[in-house]
Design a protein that fits this description.
By secondary structure, the protein is an alpha/beta fold. The chain is built from 15 helices and 15 strands. The protein folds into 2 domains: 202 residues, Glycogen Phosphorylase B (Rossmann fold, 3-Layer(aba) Sandwich); 186 residues, Rossmann fold (3-Layer(aba) Sandwich), CATH 3.40.50. The strands form 3 sheets. It has a 7-stranded parallel β-sheet, sandwiched between helices. Strands 12-11-10-13-14-15 form a 6-stranded parallel β-sheet, with helices on both faces. The longest helix has 22 residues. This is Probable glycosyltransferase.
């Protein structure tokens, strides 16, 4: 089988399935904007970056869509160049969120298209109108509805779709859910596990090791979408009540999902200014982004790992923390609640309550013995539901084969009934 993977930041969600198909003998090509990581058996080709779009004369509702169209054009041109060199895929696996999948049906009318749909925007029940809670204006509702233009065009042409969690699946329209599987990328639990000899170097030159009391927080960007302000506001209480605790925060200063503070600067700068004089900064460590191996060392040392999020896409870092046997203090929001059951395999807290967050962290630090069963259950949850080699990768390969052969993916798990979603 000839398979093309399309993702601007390849390998991303295709890190495991692309080399797995290549290993069994499929001809696998990847198309992306960035150089990406070399994967065994995968030929990686770059397309030219799209021109900037969305100028001041473009209606603000459609600026993102205009950028998507430009990107889709560049990918279509690269697809035609591949076709001219003799490569026509039987199956195209594409993340269409940035527009890369808009015109692939026109380039290869006979190929089967399996698209990865990450998030469908709605003006209620998800990230919009969550923080601060309140009614969404008709102007914002219109903007949010228009954000789905790229997805709707991609859904129309895809033979089948996939999304990683039941809650993310539930956000899509009924007619779209009927042609989508819930298939998570998976966690390599044989690699992502607690390391008994772990040490982690702090920015100030000190090193954390076994026996240290460590509170961890990880996000691509330190921003409201991932609860960074509320976590920061919980720290004075945590650090006052746990004088030996060290807090380590991993993530970049730039937001990835929301905007910068209205008055400029970064959210880190804003919260440090707000809490000036209330934090022992020698025990609060900002690392920026770190290599994945260092991240696993840090998670291996975590005494309590805080994961907060708007109702939005679920971060890989939460499942990796659970796979490392961390005690996760998570927000009682979707899709965290799909994975963590309070008091069973983690602790759930009110996203908006620094007091609630602090109380749960202090509880975890004060009685680690009582948390041991929750840590073990967290690891089991990932092994039983998200293990890469035994569950998720075989499911992905079976899904690819079914779509490529024009079959309804009968072996994909049937999604449970979704909760009612806003229209």
């Amino acid at each position: 089988m000839r398979v093309l993977f399309v993702h601007q930041n390849f390998p991303a969600q295709y890190r495991h399935v692309a080399p797995a198909l290549a290993k069994r003998g499929d001809a696998v090509v990847a198309l992306g904007e960035n150089a990406g990581e070399a994967l065994p058996g995968v030929r990686h080709i770059r397309y030219k970056p799209p021109p900037s779009a969305g100028g001041k004369d473009t209606h603000r509702y459609v600026r993102r869509f205009e950028n998507a169209v430009f990107r889709g054009q560049q990918v279509a041109r690269a697809a035609l160049a591949l076709k001219a060199r003799g490569f026509s895929p039987d199956l195209v696996c594409c993340h269409p969120g940035w527009g890369e999948g808009l015109f692939l049906r026109d380039a290869w009318p006979d190929a089967k298209l399996l698209y990865y749909f990450e998030y469908y925007f709605r003006s209620a029940g998800g990230d919009v109108g969550f923080d601060p809670p309140g009614e969404v204006s008709i102007d914002d509702a219109g903007r949010v509805r228009t954000l789905n233009a790229t997805h709707l065009m991609s859904l129309e042409q895809a033979d089948w779709g996939q999304t990683p969690t039941q809650w993310q699946w539930s956000r899509f329209p009924d007619w779209a859910r009927a042609r989508m599987s819930v298939a998570h990328e998976g966690v390599d639990t044989r690699v992502i596990r607690r390391r008994e000899d772990a040490r982690f170097a702090l920015p100030d030159g000190r090193a954390l090791g076994r026996g240290d009391e460590v509170v961890t927080f990880i996000a691509r960007g330190l921003e409201p979408y991932r609860g960074f302000p509320n976590f920061m506001r919980s720290l004075p209480e945590i650090l006052a009540r746990r004088p030996a605790a060290q807090v380590v925060m991993v993530g970049g200063d730039e937001p990835h999902y929301g905007g910068k503070p209205p008055d400029g600067g970064t959210w880190k700068e804003k919260l440090l200014a707000e809490l000036d004089g209330r934090l022992p900064l020698e025990r609060v460590h900002f690392t920026g982004k770190v290599p994945h191996a260092a991240l696993l060392d840090l998670l291996s040392l975590s005494s309590a790992h805080v994961y907060l999020t708007y109702p939005f896409v679920l971060s890989w870092s939460m499942l990796e923390a659970m796979s490392c046997g961390c005690l996760v203090v998570g927000s009682a929001t979707a899709p965290v609640q799909e994975v963590i059951q309070d008091g069973v395999n983690g602790l759930l807290v009110d996203f908006f309550s620094p007091d609630d967050i602090a109380a749960a962290v202090v509880r975890a630090l004060s009685d680690p013995g009582a948390m041991a069963p929750l840590r073990a259950a967290a690891r089991r949850t990932v092994e039983e539901r998200y293990d890469l080699r035994d569950i998720c990768l075989p499911q992905h390969v079976a899904l690819a084969d079914a779509v490529a052969n024009g079959r309804r993916p009968a072996d994909a798990p049937r999604p449970v009934a979704a909760t009612a979603s806003a229209r």
